[in-house]
Amino acid sequence: MKTYRTGVVGTGFIGQVHIETVRRLGNVQVVALTDKFQAQERAQAMNVPAWFEDYKEMIDTMQLDMVHICTPNNTHFEIAMYALSHGVNVICEKPMTTTVEEARILVKKAEETGLVAAINFHNRFYPMTNHLMHIIRDGELGSIFSISGSYCQDWLLYDTDYSWRLNTEESGATRVIADIGSHWMDLAEFVSGQKITEVCADFSTIHPFRKKPNKTVLAFSSETFSESDYTEIPVHTEDNASVMFRFENGAKGIAFFSQVIAGKSVAIDLQIGGYKQSAQWNSADVNSLVLGQRDRGCTKIEKGTATVHPATLPLVAYPIGHAEGFPDAFKQCFKEVYESIEQKDKTWNYADFKDGLHEMILCEKIFESNEKQQWISIEKGSNS
Questions:
Q1: The domain containing residue 231 runs over which residues?
Q2: Is residue 28, in this structure, part of any structural domain at all?
Q3: What is the 3-state secondary structure (H, E, C) of the chain?
Q4: pLDDT value at position 218?
Q5: Which of 102, 124, 164, 373 is the most exposed place for a label (fewest CB within 10 A)?
Q6: Among residues 74, 102, 122, which one ends one of the domains?
Q7: Count of domains for the chain
Q8: Whole-model pTM?
């Protein structure tokens, strides 16, 4: 089995998850990391042999097979372009970029190089979301007419909660939509097999001003300060977003996305309505899927080798009753991405840069819809 040399750019919460998870594959060595803050300390803490403050130096000197991009959104474009231009495959966190034009350029660059270019939409890789995708393809739910749900968090509930994601220069025009709405939309389209064709959105911001700490604070930090340690800043991105959807095969949908719902750390809900059955998956019960029938009530299916669709079996690593969660979905996503480096002709489940571009277009159109307070169409052919 080939062993891959990997470098990680950005070692905040999600960068550390990437490092921990990719090591579980067995044939990937994390040989270097890059961070502008405490790079040496992070490398030593995670037993990574080399560290850099400049990602270009890492790519130029470390003979990498893959770069994982886990930095703020406004840096994704330049890092991915540099990696692809130097013959290095890329796994990038979402959203892919901060503009649709940047995303189009990256898609073209990836096609020109023939390198693997993936977006970490890991929710595709829970066994039960994958199982649901396959049974919908097999017609077990019948024709799909309804796709609804939500993705809620609470880590920005207080006006003293701060993250770089609140800064439009770093995060882009939308926050909740790009950060978590993109995950839900990708999952809804992947599972249902239907692309979104029209959107109608309404945003709200509960804190038009927030208190920014006068020093660097990591995402999801619960650290508190005195009043003198803060600077009040205006907020130009949404805390909540309600979005209605129309899908290409006629299904209608609605979803609510928020980062300010108390008690919701990571709460993803997806409900699919079909003419034969309905299905519901919720991240709080990640290893289960509930199927609803008109005359028989609901049936709860647990993840296991004897219960999932045959095509889902590669994603089941442990027996029934042994939970597989957030890091396991990352592992399965990364496993496919690395396997695709050598097996380019196979069809894979992971999201590539074309999928990343599609989500960027959806984010842009949803932002436009909120601004105009009307339905906005997703033009056919706009994803290329």
A1: 127-320+353-377
A2: yes
A3: CCCEEEEEECCCHHHHHHHHHHHHHCCEEEEEEECCCCHHHHHHHCCCCEEECCHHHHHHHCCCCEEEECCCHHHHHHHHHHHHHCCCEEEECCCCCCCHHHHHHHHHHHHHHCCCEEECCHHHHCHHHHHHHHHHHCCCCCCEEEEEEEEECCCCCCCCCCCHHHCHHHHCCCCHHHHHHHHHHHHHHHHHCCCEEEEEEEEECCCCEEEEECCCCCCCCCCCCCHHHEEEEECCCCCEEEEEEEECCCCEEEEEEECCCCCCCCEEEEEEEECCCEEEEEHHHCCEEEEEECCCEEEEEECCCCCCCHHHHHHCCCCCCCCCCHHHHHHHHHHHHHHHHHCCCCCCCCEEHHHHHHHHHHHHHHHHHHHHCCCEECCCCCCC
A4: 57
A5: 373
A6: 122
A7: 2
A8: 0.94
